[in-house]
Prior knowledge:
Layout: E1 2-7, E2 10-12, E3 18-26, E4 33-39, E5 46-52, E6 57-59, E7 67-72, E8 77-82, E9 91-98, E10 102-104, E11 108-112
Amino acid sequence: QVQLVESGGGLVQPGGSLRLSCAASGTIFSINAMGWYRQAPGKLRELVATITSGGSTNYADSVKGRFTISRDDAKNTVSLQMNSLKPDDTARYYCWAWSRGQYWGQGTQVTVSS
C-alpha cells in the first residue's frame, strides 16, 4: 500500500502562484509515475500533469506554460509549481501515483479569487 499526502493548497489572487507538494509513504516498490489531477465542483476529475520515473512530463493544454511538475525520487515526492493562476484553476487537487496499481491522495483545495 502507498499513502499520498498533499500540502500547499490555499487561497490566492488571480495571477498569483502556489506550490503543491505530495509525499508518498508506505510499501513502495517503485513508483513508475506520479502526478496531479484536479476536480472542480460539478465537473469530472481531469489530468493536470504527470511525470514518469524517467522524467518525461505530460501537461493538460490548459496549464502548459504556467505549471511545472517535478519529482524527487530519493524522497518519493512530487511537486507542482503553479504560476499565473486563473479563477478556472480553482479545484481540489489530487496527488496520483502508479506503483503496481494506482493510488490517490485525499486532495488539497486551491481557490483562485480576488
